[in-house]
């Protein structure tokens, strides 16, 4: 009888390890498969023990980089990312500060507004953009018109990051001290509050960049050749090249999140449900 | 959630003239105007326009023809297919996400396992779009590497009705972001379960089964149901990934994209907007329920 609980425990430990290993395989294998296709020029049919390490090369990257639209799409996505980050911060930081300082009553209301993009997914939003397009053709025809919509798509993550940051500082004392020393609102916001929100601002910046680098739906329907749209299009003509670009994009995004975790470590923790809950586009 | 920062009492600070520290007056709402105006312009106006177009007859007057056309025939099939695989994907995500979260939580060594699972979930839950589809195309596509390996061992994956654009394939692909998302949702609830509950249960004569049936699962239930709804909504509205693995328009987001693409006759485009309207309705119902459940689950995590 005494032996039974022990064996049951070691069995359940084995089970847990098994689950974790299986999960690990599920998440690693697809990426490994894509990397192989991108970097190895051997048909699957010819793959075997003898050819397992044959013909690795980086020429897919040089081919893709040489494509006329590669640089254009990268430049466009970079411009959009910068614009989206700036607009997000300019819009959200003052609003969140205002809510914390003067309108704590409105917190639930503002939070509700910031999660509305969950309810209206990208494909629903772009349907609306198509409806209003004839009235504002001059605006939508510009590639940079994607910026405000990407601000909207990133809103659930970015507002949450800034809101959490504001909760962790003594905003009221900071503001009153700055005001008593004669600083105006503008100065208070930029030289006192913003530096104290460093990690929240970094977090929302990176989350915004991740959204811009990943968004496909709106760009696809509006026929804007952003980097993700180029990636999808490029695979049609060169599958290996498409996979290579995807490896690059995933590597970049993962790197972004690792840097983010490092920069914001002391204060960052998974709090309640819904932290970082993403939307799919 | 109450603010974590305790506000200093007003009594100690001599309020300067012009710095309102009293109750909110109507004027203070002005600070929200830029933000609200932005959302109205770039989110609400498009969303409302969708409904206006959906509720319009070919002659431009108000009518519900397109609105109900969007849930008939092929469109109905699209909704049925989308809802079916979204439920499947949510179920798989809930079960495996909970299992992995529980395993990661209770594995003591190596310590780094839990940290790794949490960090990775944060990244993978945000995964989606084009690269995700590419990963599974190269693993399980017709020329995929695992497909070929299985074929070598005599299992022809594509002999049956498997396909990356079918229920089986979409559930597999979407698990890549659904499982991590579920881990993020359920882990706080699992960690919030106190070991004293388990001790109380066993000192009252309960075994492991009793614990899970009477305490563990009921406490986790709001998080599990909430996670299910979140995962469902997530799968239901995904466009980018699906667009890479299937070009048929039998799932709702792709069908909307097809109608928006403009290859349809005048008057028919209203059906596209009606599909969008129905999709927003489905999302709204799922998310409303999710928020209700989330509030309930937060009660246990105080």
Comma- or semicolon-separated keywords:
heterodimer; A: mainly alpha; MetI-like fold; disordered N terminus; disordered C terminus; B: 302 residues; mainly alpha; 12 helices; globular
Description:
The complex is a heterodimer of chains A (281) and B (302). The N and C termini of chain A lie far apart (55 Å). With 281 residues, chain A is mostly helical. The N terminus and C terminus of chain A are likely disordered. In chain A, 42% of the residues are buried. Chain A folds into two domains: 57 residues; 207 residues, Orthogonal Bundle (MetI-like fold), CATH 1.10.3720. Chain A has 14 helices and no strands. With 302 residues, chain B is mainly α. Chain B has a single domain, classed as Orthogonal Bundle (MetI-like fold), CATH 1.10.3720.10. In chain B, 67% of the residues lie in helices and 0% in strands. Chain B contains twelve helices and no strands. In chain B, helix 8 packs antiparallel against helix 9. The longest helix of chain B is centred in the first third of the chain and has 34 residues. Chain B is globular and about 75 Å long. The relative contact order of chain B is 0.12. At the A-B interface, helix 1, helix 3, helix 5, helix 6 and helix 8 of A face helix 1, helix 3, helix 4, helix 5 and helix 6 of B.
Output mean pLDDT of chain B: 83
Q: Which term fits the overall shape of chain B?
A: globular
General form of chain A: globular
Query: Any guess at the CATH architecture of chain B?
Result: Orthogonal Bundle
Query: Which runs of chain B of at least 5 residues are low in confidence (pLDDT < 50)?
Result: 1-21
Q: Percent of residues of chain B in helical segments? A: 55-70%
Q: How many strand elements of chain B?
A: 0
CATH superfamily of the largest domain in chain A, called what? Answer: MetI-like
